Amino acid sequence: MRREDAHRRATINDVARAAAVSRQTVSNVLNKPHLVRPETLERVRQEVDRLGYRPSQAAQGMRSQRAGAVGIELNAVQRAGSDVAQLFLTELTVAAPRFDVHLVPFAHESTFPAVEGYQDMVRRRLVDAFVLSDTHVGDPRPEWLLQTRIPFAAFGRLYDQPELTCWADVDGASGTAQAVEHLHARGYRRVAYLGWPHDRPASAVAEARWEGWSTAASARGTAGPEGTCEQDLTDATRAADALLEPLEPGDAVVCASDLLALGVVYAAYARGWRVGPDLGVVGFDGSLIASRHGLTTVEQPLALIAAALLGGITDQLTGGALTPSGQLLEPTLTPGPSTDRSATTGIPITAPEQSSRR
């Protein structure tokens, strides 16, 4: 290679000349190796490696009519709580290169997940597939994606038709049951519960987390009072104040999210209780709220969920058909000061968080 070509990127023509084959043969080696004789296949691959040839992703995309991109709707994912959304998007972004795709976030004016934003992304050929979030009973998106044969995978079970879809989800019932067992192991007595209302499209998530607490606490005969509120700090603090009324120092509260747990913390301090020594508090999600405020929390396995979803999408893109699969992944309880009974002081109060709605 001439001096002036020393730093030039190798082309498909360079590989063809070096291997003494046609440009089409090189293309077949890269895209359809089963069409090439073994000895030619090996010779071309050696020249590809020697020259450091890398096919143009843009050209490959034009030939396959693929964008190499996976869309994710910010409207939907942010409703799960901004901290969890941020962590989930980070895990998806980190995992995407391993699956030869990149993420394209988008949003729509609709206040709840609808198909319009997805239709627009497909119409403009910006993405090849989608990751869904905030799935719920009556969700219109899976049916439209199935009908149009657009690959997708969902963070959360597709409750209307789980047998037809690819999804990964956290086992919410297992998580709150772990929280109850942790509190009993730490010596707390009654265990109350603060969760979300069940009369809404996304109620299956609320019910699963409530069920884990109810089953585990009832089995021990220590189920305390229960309350519900919106995914909003002001509402959670108000509901927690009423929930704590019949409780006594030495009791505890399991919450459906870290944000609700923070509401319990504020309500407890307003009563002069120390969170940890006097009142045990466990949140759910493993969000930044939990680490910032010293909360014991049930962490969602977001990295595993992201990999499972992108893997399912890759299988669909390469195989041409959706293979129904569901993975219910186990969460992990991470202890924090909010369940430390041996502490002499409770966890410190910091400035209130911004309200975050589910």
TrEMBL record:
Polar residues: compositionally biased ranges: 335-347
HTH lacI-type domain residues: 10-64
Region (Disordered): 324-358
Record's protein name: Transcriptional regulator, LacI family
Record carries keyword Kinase: no
Molecular-function GO term, any one: transcription cis-regulatory region binding
Family matches, as InterPro entries: HTH_LacI, LacI/GalR-like_sensor, Lambda_DNA-bd_dom_sf, Peripla_BP_I
Keywords per UniProt: DNA-binding, Transcription, Transcription regulation
SMART domains: HTH_LACI
Listed Pfam families: LacI (PF00356), Peripla_BP_3 (PF13377)
Organism listed in the record: Serinicoccus hydrothermalis
Entry annotated with the keyword Isomerase: no
